Amino acid sequence: MKLSKEEIIDLLKQRGLEVNDLYPTQISVIVNKENLINHLVYLKSIGFDHLSFINAVDFIDEGEFELVYHVWSYTNKVHVLNKVRIDRNDPKIPTIVDLWEQAQFYEQEVHEFFGIVFEGNKDLSPLFLENWLDIPPLRKDFDTREFSIRLFDAKPNGGDR
Amino acid sequence: MDAPSYMLTKIAEKDDLAVYELFFGPNHPGMHGNFGYVLEMIGTEIVKVRPNAGQLHRGFEKLMEQKLWVQNIALVPRICVVDPDPNEVAYCTAIEKIMGIEIPDRAKFIRTITLEMSRLTSFLMGMGALGAALGLYTPMYIMTADRDLILDLFEWLTGGRIYHIFNIPGGVRNDLPEGWVDRLNKVLDHLEKRLIEYDKILFENPIVHKRLKGLGYVSKEDAVRFGLTGPNLRASGNPYDVRVDDPYAAYAYLDVKVIIQEGGDALTRAVQVRIEFEETIKLIRQALKLMPEGEVRLNLGNLAMLKVPKGEAYAKVESSKGEFGYYVVSDGGMKPYRVAVRGPSLPAGLLLAQKHLPKMKIDDVAAWMGSLAICPPDIDK
Amino acid sequence: MIEILRVFLFGFFAIFIGLFFMGIGRKIIARIQLRLGPPFYQAFLDVGKLFSRKSITHNFVMDLGMVMSLAGLVATMLFVPIAGHTAIKTSSNLIVIMYLMAIGYLGMAMAVAASGNPNATIGVSRALTMMLGYEVPFFTVMLGLIIINGTSSLELIANSQAGSILNWNMIKFPLGFIAAEIALQAMMGEKPFDAMIAPAEIASGPMVELSGKYLGLAFLTHAVSIFVETAIIVNLFMGGASNIFTFVLKQFEIYLITVIIEAVFPRFKIEQAVKFLWTVPMSIALLQLVLIVF
């Protein structure tokens, strides 16, 4: 049964969530950390069966990470950006591996690059970086220029020749 | 060296049989790109799989936060080597969504034609790689020669053969030169004639059927549940295609035929690529007929000083491997705040490996990878 | 003294013709694949380059094994009549020839298993399994020919086909020829039966651990094996020859068939290959055997 974008916005607003209508086939929903799993289960029940992507954005000025869960419905043809804010100094959130199995790898990637801990994910070992001793690299306070100069003895502007 | 060099290193024991470790690794003639699986094996049968990713990690997402909006268009095609145009289109579409602008119609059609030509080159390489994984090198060489004809057309239009850097926010860089359309029609005729030869040597080869039948079966529900997209999804019976579900560029004006097949195994996926190849040629011809006149880019001023207003957008494109997605967050400045890339090979390369590879023999790993179109650069980014 | 020189002469001739055939074969495959291909003398350049490199060895067993494989094949070649001449005076017994050919494979197996690379070990086990596969139909065909000729001497079998072209065993026993051709494809390690060297699956199998001079020795072994195996087929089915040139020409025809089949087929898995070899050529050979006996 196909739901239109307006009907989906109404259903979600009735559940007390803040919804933004962004583009003709895209809406965004702000979700709390505690309601995340219930919300995703509800979305799965109304036809959103494809988990596209999980990524994080670092808002360092507000002291928060924002996790975005992208789900798409093949029957309703609407893309939902589920945005969850968590505290930057203690980034922890429960995992959604039981709903979609590919989430284990997306969460592994986000953990490696941002340092967010997903409770319940059985394998958060490093996937891409080897012997990494610094802070997670995609955070905004990781300076790539200073990292190169320190690690590889790079001389900026060719050094003094 | 502690153990004598003529003994394999035994890492475990299971039911009195020794388990040893084999690197189906980054440096291997059967692997596409620098990616590896660390396999634990008993005899020639695989027991456990661990992905060995990260050799192609170039740090694109961090790099894109430090460069101007228009400088990133030179970085973005390098995320996928075989099919680079969907990256540019997705990135520019995301920027255009945030800015709220719509590009001229002629630019939409030119974008569509370059996207479909890039899909042709990727299919040619993919079919050739599948044959080479089985040991059939003849179609691989012939397809590489045919792919060169399309790359010559790209060089005439954009200046680059593989990475085009042709799309910009607001349209495309320049219009089609004189005589380009005639040459494109000649190349398409040549490819249609060649399809008969490809059929005879690759798709009707009895040994290819014997090798690929029943390999890597994905059922209809599993394909959606695991997040597969693109031809892999459609070869399992699901009628979903981003060009029809969520149209971008000029696809809303064209009649795109969605090819569905039941079967779900490697042979069905190979035939799926072949049928989509033929449909792509027909789609380019359709787009050439319907293309209107007009401008090809909006005047946005000096692109190096482009400022994108605050907002966010997710744009997705149907590449030859699946759904390529770009999530762009802008804070109103001259550089992006965050660009996150969704590559289509991650569910197949990492999740399906855990499901299919144990209990498979080592003979089939290369053919399995080739049939699912796993391309490592967009896992690592 | 003359005997030793004769042996050396035959050895170098076999290596030369084998490398020459390999170069021509690569050119033909390249033309089928719509490309220009390397020059005819490419195999000589390859062997020359490989012997000028440094090589890594693991232990003494690896050295011994490689030399043993080349020596085994050269020993086989000494017994095969080439246009009526053999390198040493012998009755060129067919069973002795087939027995000595196995030493080639076993030598390489020994050398490569001593290196400890799992890819190489898998490749060697596949090579030995393939040997099990192709020996069965080939021996059946040979048995038929031995029965009809009453002798197991290759020279006498070749001479019995003298006369006209209609006397050739290829025309008199066509089913046997077909079965032997399929078994020859597996004996030479060409597709569709080249599971031993499967680059995409096991990183070139036995050759993955060989470098420099060892790879050169492997090339030479392959060259001599081409010469020996085509020579056996020419003697069995195409009536030997009266002079060297006709003999080499007939060998080239057999090699040409092999190369053309190789260009258009992928490879079987090892279980599929053995199953195929034990059903299709085996039944043809059995049919031929029954026709001969009754």
TrEMBL record, chain A:
Is the Oxidoreductase keyword given for this protein?
yes
What enzyme category does the UniProt record give?
oxidoreductase
**Keyword Amino-acid biosynthesis (UniProt):** no
Domain (NADH:ubiquinone oxidoreductase 30kDa subunit) ranges: 30-146
Question: Which keywords describe this protein according to UniProt?
Answer: Oxidoreductase, Ubiquinone
What domain of life does the UniProt record list for this protein's source? Bacteria
Note the SUPFAM superfamilies from the entry.
Nqo5-like
Q: Which Pfam families match?
A: Complex1_30kDa
What Gene3D superfamilies does the record tag this protein with?
NADH:ubiquinone oxidoreductase, 30kDa subunit
Q: Which GO terms describe its molecular function?
A: NADH dehydrogenase (ubiquinone) activity; oxidoreductase activity
Q: EC number(s) for this protein?
A: 1.6.5.3
Read off the PANTHER family from this record.
Answer: NADH DEHYDROGENASE [UBIQUINONE] IRON-SULFUR PROTEIN 3, MITOCHONDRIAL, NADH DEHYDROGENASE UBIQUINONE IRON-SULFUR PROTEIN 3
Family statement? Belongs to the complex I 30 kDa subunit family.
Question: What is the protein name given in its UniProt record?
Answer: NADH-ubiquinone oxidoreductase chain C
Q: Which organism is it from?
A: Caloramator australicus RC3
UniProtKB/TrEMBL annotation, chain B:
One Pfam family for this entry, by name? Complex1_49kDa
Q: What superkingdom heads the lineage?
A: Bacteria
UniProt KW keywords: Membrane, NAD, Oxidoreductase, Quinone, Translocase, Transmembrane, Transmembrane helix, Transport, Ubiquinone
The transmembrane residues are 120-142
All copies of the NADH-quinone oxidoreductase subunit D domain together span 134-298, 306-381
Q: Give the EC number(s) listed in the UniProt record.
A: 1.6.5.3
The record ties this protein, via Gene3D superfamilies, to: Cytochrome-c3 Hydrogenase, chain B
* GO terms assigned for molecular function: NAD binding; oxidoreductase activity, acting on NAD(P)H; quinone binding
Q: What family does this chain come from, according to its entry?
A: Belongs to the complex I 49 kDa subunit family.
Q: Which protein are we looking at?
A: NADH-ubiquinone oxidoreductase chain D
Lineage summary:
Bacteria, Bacillati, Bacillota, Clostridia, Eubacteriales
UniProtKB/TrEMBL annotation, chain C:
Annotated InterPro entries: ComplexI_Subunit1, NADH_UbQ_OxRdtase_su1/FPO
| Keywords linked to the UniProt accession | Membrane, Oxidoreductase, Transmembrane, Transmembrane helix, Ubiquinone
**Under which main EC class is this enzyme filed?**
oxidoreductase
Q: What is its main location?
A: membrane
Instruction: Give the species.
Output: Caloramator australicus RC3
Tell where it localizes: Membrane
Question: A Gene Ontology molecular-function term?
Answer: oxidoreductase activity
Regions crossing the membrane: 6-25, 60-82, 94-115, 127-148, 168-187, 214-238, 244-264, 276-293
Give the source's domain of life in one word.
Answer: Bacteria
What EC number(s) does the entry state?
1.6.5.3
Q: How does it sit in the membrane?
A: Multi-pass membrane protein
GO CC, sorted alphabetically, is: plasma membrane
Statement: the UniProt record of this protein carries the keyword Transferase: no
Q: Pfam families, per this entry? A: NADHdh
Leader sequence segment: none
| Record protein name field | NADH-ubiquinone oxidoreductase chain H
